[in-house]
Amino acid sequence: MPKERGRQVIASNRRARHDYTILDTYEAGVVLVGTEVKSLRAGRASLVDAFATVDDGEVWLRGLHIAEYERGTWTNHEPRRHRKLLLHRGEILRLIGKTKESGLSLVPLSMYFKDGKVKVELALAKGKREYDKRQSIAKRDADREIAKAIGRAAKGRQ
């Protein structure tokens, strides 16, 4: 049986890029039980309130909601349980240092299948203040206006 290729996105946290300045990203595996994987294959996950913590040298994903598998029986999983993330020891030590030193957060950006395995894109992020968010929105709008003007000029219209 050939392995799946590519990256099939299950869920993404679009709000994270608005609320945080992304400094660095990591790819981590997730420890799951059988019914969780089946529910993820159906696309039933939410990263809205999710965050990661480092406890006793291990990284844990908290607040991730994976809906119960509708065909599951007594073996079904708890939707908001804490899930262990799989990272290399060096990456974990780097994350411990960064989160302790300067008030940075670990925020999941997206969850996806990569070659049949569930992965989470984890970001080392710093929270934006309200005026930073307004500046980001203004910059995005200005870039959009510039792109429109360039497009109109390329078509010969003013």
Q: Can you walk me through this structure?
A:
There is one protein chain. The chain is an alpha+beta fold. It has two domains: 7-127, Small Protein B, Chain: A (Beta Barrel); 129-158. It has helices at 14-19, 34-41, 89-102, 130-154, and strands at residues 7-12, 20-30, 45-46, 51-55, 58-62, 65-66, 83-86, 105-114, 117-127. The chain has a seven-stranded antiparallel sheet with strand order 1-8-9-2-7-5-4. A two-stranded antiparallel ribbon has the order 3-6. The protein starts with 6 loop residues before the first strand and ends with a helix. It comes from Tamaricihabitans halophyticus. Belongs to the SmpB family. Keywords: Cytoplasm, RNA-binding.
Question: Notable features of this structure?
Answer:
158 residues; Small Protein B, Chain: A; 2 domains; seven-stranded antiparallel sheet; two-stranded antiparallel sheet; SsrA-binding protein; cytoplasm; SsrA-bd_prot
